[in-house]
Design goal:
Distance between the termini: 14 Å
Helix content: 25-40%
Number of strands: 4
Radius of gyration: 19 Å
CATH topology of the largest domain: Arc Repressor Mutant, subunit A
Number of domains: 2
Strand order of the largest sheet: 1-2
Number of helices: 6
Strand content: 5-15%
CATH architecture of the largest domain: Orthogonal Bundle
CATH superfamily of the largest domain: Winged helix-like DNA-binding domain superfamily/Winged helix DNA-binding domain
CATH class of the largest domain: Mainly Alpha
């Protein structure tokens, strides 16, 4: 399907995968730690980790030889998912906090201030919203259709 969103969801489009990625971004690396922190079954965790490794979002690295044990580290491809997770967190903080405020806050290391993700234009740095963006067919769309909407 010539749709970047559909292709992305084929890798990260379920709850457990996103929670595994959240924890990976918080420096969880070992199977047992993911299992304990998430309360996920070992079968589901193993399946999702395998899928993320196959998609080159995570890589397996041996950290112990006897018995052989691995840790899971984000690849460059995996690190590029961070803005997506922050955008989901931002939405959840706004709409799903039950009036209690965000459970986790984020501090920008460079300026030392608390921050929340903001989507901006790559060219002019103006904030983006659905009303200011016009979807157009790109080179990756290989049909003669004139609209994807």
């Amino acid at each position: 399907m010539p749709c970047s969103l559909a292709r992305t969801l084929s890798v990260i489009g379920d709850r457990w995968t996103l929670l595994i990625l959240r924890n990976a971004f918080m420096r969880t690396r070992r199977f047992d730690d993911f299992h304990q922190q998430l309360g996920i079954t070992k079968h589901v965790l193993s399946d999702r980790l395998k899928k993320l490794v196959e998609a080159e979002v995570l890589e397996k690295r041996a950290y112990q030889e006897k018995p052989l044990r691995y840790e899971y580290r984000l690849t460059e491809k995996g690190l590029d998912l961070y803005p997506i997770l922050l955008a989901l967190v931002n939405w959840g903080d706004k709409w799903m906090d039950d009036g209690k405020g965000p459970p986790i806050e984020y501090q920008h290391r460079n300026c030392g201030r608390k921050t929340r993700p903001t989507l901006v234009c790559s060219e002019c740095n103006e904030p983006l919203s659905v009303r200011e963006v016009i979807p157009m067919l790109g080179e990756g769309y290989k049909t003669k259709k004139t609209s994807i909407l």
